[in-house]
Structures are given as C-alpha cells and as structure tokens.
Amino acid sequence: MFYCPPTDIRVSVDVGCKSHHVAVGLSSGEVLDEFSIDHQPEGFQTFFAKFEALERQYQCPVRVAMEGYNGYTRPLDSMVLARGWQLYNINNLKLARFKEIFPGAAKTDVIDARRGLELFQLQDHLPMAKDVLQAVAETPQENKILKRLSRRRRRFVNERVRVSNNLTVDLQAVCPSLLAITVEVGNLWFLRILTCTDDLQKLKRLQLNTLRKIPGIGVKYAGLIQQWQKQAQFSAEVEWVGEMIQEDANRMLELNRQIKAMEIKMAALAADSQIANLLTTIPGFGPICTAELSGEIGNASRFAKESSLALYMGMAALDNSSGQYRGTKAPRQVNRRAKSAMMIAVDRHRKQVPVSQKYYEKKRAEGKGHNQAVRALGRHLCRIIFKMFKEQRAYVPPK
User: Fold this and answer.
1) How many domains does the chain divide into?
2) Do 13 and 65 belong together in one domain?
3) Which of 101, 135, 218, 382 is the most buried (most CB within 10 A)?
C-alpha cells in the first residue's frame, strides 16, 4: 500500500476559561491524540512538549487553530507565534454558519476540538470553510501595546460618562441651582468646587479668598458662585446624597488623570508605529483615533484587499438583495472599536478637506443621514488607506 507522508501536523484548540481541550491530527485526516491542558505554565509546557516531539517525529510543520484568538487564549497564542508555528483564528460567525449546514447531534469540548480538524480538511475544498480559519499575522509590539492601552482608555471614558450622568441626576435632585451655574458638569473648575470641602452644604459659606485659591476659579466663576450663594438651597436628600456627589466628583477627577496619563503613553508608542505614522498624515485623524486604529488593525498585511479592510472597520455594507429588491445590510463581522474611531476621524476629516466635504454634502442631498454619509466617505478613505499601507506612503491631498 502506498504511503503518503503528512505535509503538516494540525492542532485544534477549544478554548475555555480555566482549561483548553486539544485535538491533534495529520493532513491525511488521521486523529493522533486528544487531551486537555490547564491554563497554567505547566499546561503550556505539556502543550509544547507534545508538539515539539511530533514535529521531530514527522519532520513537518505545526499549524494551530484556536477559537477566540487574543482573548482567553492569551498568552498561549503569542507563545505559538513565538515558536514560528502558523496560527489560525477560528471565525466564530462563520463557524456558526458552518455548523448550521453540518449540524451535530451534541456539543462538547471534544466535539468542538475535532470540528477544528475537520475545518483544516475542508478549507481547501469547500469555499464556505475556507475563510473560517483565518491566518494570524505577527503584530508589531508597539501596536499590541496600543491596543491594550486604547481599550483601557475607552473603558475609563465610558466610566466617566456613567459617573457624569449619575452626578448630574443627583445634583438635579439635591441643588438644581448649583448645577445651573455650569454648562457641563464635567468641567474641572466645577468638580474642584464640589470637592473643596468635606460637606457639600459648606459651599454656600465659602469666602471669595477661598474660592480664588481653587485652581481654575477666576473672577468670572467666582462671581457666578457668589451669586448662587445668595439664594442657595439644598433638599433634605443632601444629608446622604451629598457625600455620594462628592465621591462621584472625586472619581471623575481621578478618571481625568488616568485618561490623560494613558493618552501620553499612547502618543509615545504611536511615534514608533508605522501604521500610526501613516494615518497621522491624513487631515482630521488625531492622535487618539490614530492610536486606536493602529492597535485594532495591528498588522496591515492581514488584509488581502481594501474591501476586507473596509468591512473590518465598519465602513462597508453587505448586499442584501432578492428578486427585484436591491438593498444592503450592516455586517456583523465588524471591529466596533475601530469603527467608532474611524467614524470620529472621518467626520473631522471632511471638515478639513473641501473635496471630502463636497462628497459628504452630495450624500446628504441624496437623502442619506449624517452617519450614512460619513460611512460612505469612510468607504472611499479605506481605499486610500489600503493603498497607503501597501505602498508605505503618506497621504496626498486631492487636487
């Protein structure tokens, strides 16, 4: 009987929170082994020891597929890439569609791990299975860090919004006239006023000299506060809500400091990022949006064509037509963080580039809403950005 040597060793990892189930097979379809490892250094050592032995035995490369790349698999995924092995991310949405076509009677970690080996076998023959396994390219270190920092900054910003909303509601209930002296409850001078005493009710007795010593309080704001003091009144809730208001104000000041520190780190890292340096040349693409996009894109070579980049950043719609009906639908395979940063950057861009502003106005005249017009402009910018990445050149303003 003719023996065909294997071309590669295929590994499928069903990722769990505390442990991972692993299935091992060959390109011939033979399943060699199945085992579980704990998400601990000892488990990682077992994982690599087994496959290094198989690599020596069969004299062929190792290819690893896992669901949830850059999530619960960390740091196992980066350790696989460091070994020089090819890593594939199992696309959850396409895997779900694949399971609809080839349903199973049951679902267990063992079955899910074996399903990864089946995808290896089918990806060269079945078009639907081809894109379920997506090759993971090595990401530059600065972009990895930018991704973590920008996501953490976004969490701080979201928390600041929630705290600001709570603070506004509490002030409206305790002392509406105090809230009326500021346009925005998040103004630094107003937060410092709220936290300058140990009791909120003492604010109506502060002297002018004390007010002027508070950073950010000048003649204008001191005059507004003195006018408020003449008719200041607090509701009965101030006895227990006043302390909450001051805690929220202190938390907002702390969040402002943390966000500022995070932005300084991001700016320093973005200076070393090739993607960030290219995006910065586009008018309207500020340092924060540029850092976020650089972290989420990671490696521009992961996109084979500009439509993939546009789809990833949420700037492209999918066809949704049937018979005489022609329409589109929003894609689910979108990086929401990249989309949010792109929407902000494109909106600022069109205000600085006359040609882009004309295109935006044209779309609005066609009856499209603001967000639709911005996305349409972003779709064109994705073509330019993809070419910038491919040719490693800066943005050239249109004539």
Assistant:
1) 3
2) yes
3) 382
Spatial distance between the Cα atoms of 193 and 351, rounded to a whole number of angstroms: 36
Tokens of 287: 């340092």
Query: Tens of pLDDT along 192-223?
Result: 999 999 999 999 898 988 888 898 888 888 99
Domain end among 253, 270, 287: 270
CATH number at residue 180: 1.10.287.4070
Q: Nearest Cα to 128, choosing from 87, 92, 97, 88? A: 97
Which residues, at least 6 apart from 123, have a Cβ–Cβ distance to it below 8 Å? 129, 130, 132, 133
Within 10 angstroms of residue 372's Cβ, the number of other Cβ atoms is 14
Residue 308, SS3? helix
Give the pLDDT confidence of 128-180 residue by residue, as tens digits: 666 778 888 888 999 999 999 999 999 999 999 999 999 999 999 999 999 99
Write down which residue in 217, 240, 270 finishes a domain. Answer: 270
> Please, are residues 164 and 188 in contact by the beta-carbon 8 Å criterion?
no
Domain that holds residue 235: 143-270
CB atoms within 10 A of CB 57: 9
Asked whether the bond before 75 is cis by omega within 30 degrees of 0, the reply is yes
Residue 357: per-residue pLDDT: 95
CATH number, domain with residue 132: 3.30.420.10
Q: Are residues 117 and 174 in the same domain?
A: no
Q: Per residue in 335-349, pLDDT tens?
A: 899 999 999 999 999
Same domain, 219 and 235: yes
d(CA 338, CA 120): 30
Same domain flag for 255 and 183: yes
**Measured between alpha carbons, how far is 290 from 274 in angstroms, rounded to an integer?**
11
Residue 1 confidence (pLDDT):
46
Classify residue 4: in a domain, yes or no.
no
Residue spans of beta strands (DSSP E) within the chain: 9-14, 19-26, 31-38, 62-67, 86-90, 133-135, 318-319, 328-329
Residue listed under structure tokens 């105090």: 178
Global confidence as pTM? 0.84
Same domain, 286 and 323: yes
